[in-house]
Amino acid sequence: MAPISSYTEKQVRDLIKTSESGMPYPDSTTQSTKNLTVNHTGPDIHYIGNRVYAFSGAVAQSTSEQTLLDFTSGSGYIVATLTMTAPIMMDNVHIGSGGVRGWQLDFNGQTVGLYKATANPENMPADMEVQILIPPFTAVTLVCIDTTDNANFLGTANITGEVFNA
């Protein structure tokens, strides 16, 4: 049987359009296999069409400041939800205990939000969900700090939203 295309596999791969991050555009026929090999956690923001997301991944309790998210927005403004969770230990013995975590959200080096949550039994939620608007071309940094050090207690931060006027 003759090949359907006279292009080699390498030529086809080279022809697939990619975004600035190197990810294929969502309409790419290889998008699903590419997603299996990409780490979607870390400090960066990711774009899929007019949607954005940033997932910090699990971050251990530390009395030293840690950067969870650190990116610069693009040409559109972003309407998003910022979700932050206080550190917990994922086992049936320790799930009821945890730590107190504070977060600082900065836009272009200026603090725009300070938040606190605890996973300890207290009159506070173990997570925070905040609606935010990120202007175009804005350097966004989210850092956290905890009251104790414990590598077994993990928390996260995530941004999910939509881009307008890009």
Brief description of this entry?
By secondary structure, the protein is mostly beta strands. The protein contains two helices and eleven strands. Strand 6 and strand 7 form a beta hairpin.
What does this entry look like structurally?
- By secondary structure, the protein is mainly beta.
- It has two domains: 1-38, no CATH class; 40-164, Jelly Rolls, CATH 2.60.120.380.
- It is built from two helices and eleven strands.
- The protein has helices spanning 9-15, 31-35, and strands at residues 46-48, 51-55, 59-61, 66-72, 77-85, 100-107, 110-118, 127-134, 139-146, 150-155, 157-164.
- The strands form three sheets. The chain has a five-stranded antiparallel beta sheet, with no helix packed on it. A four-stranded antiparallel beta sheet has the order 4-9-6-7, with no helix packed on it. The chain has a two-stranded antiparallel ribbon with strand order 3-10.
- Strand 1 (46-48) and strand 2 (51-55) form a beta hairpin.
- The longest helix is centred in the first third of the chain and has 7 residues, at 9-15.
- It starts with 8 loop residues before the first helix and ends with a strand.
- Mean pLDDT is 82; it is low at 1-5, 15-19 and 24-33.
List the helices and strands and how they pair.
Blueprint: H1 9-15, H2 31-35, E1 46-48, E2 51-55, E3 59-61, E4 66-72, E5 77-85, E6 100-107, E7 110-118, E8 127-134, E9 139-146, E10 150-155, E11 157-164
Antiparallel strand pairs: 1-2, 2-11, 3-10, 4-9, 5-8, 5-11, 6-7, 6-9
Question: What count of helical segments does DSSP give?
Answer: 2
Radius of gyration of CA atoms, rounded to a whole number = 20 Å
Which term fits the overall shape?
globular
Low-confidence stretches at least 5 residues in length (pLDDT < 50)?
1-5, 15-19, 24-33
The helix content is: under 10%
**Which CATH class of the largest domain applies here?**
Mainly Beta
What's the number of structural domains? 2
Q: Main sheet?
A: 5 strands, antiparallel
Report how far apart the termini are: 46 Å
Q: What is the ordering of alpha helices and beta strands?
A: HHEEEEEEEEEEE
The neighbouring-strand order within the major sheet is 1-2-11-5-8
Strand content: 35-45%
Total beta strand runs: 11
CATH fold topology of the largest domain: Jelly Rolls
- Helix-strand category: mainly beta
- The CATH architecture name of the largest domain reads Sandwich
**Which whole number gives the mean pLDDT?**
82
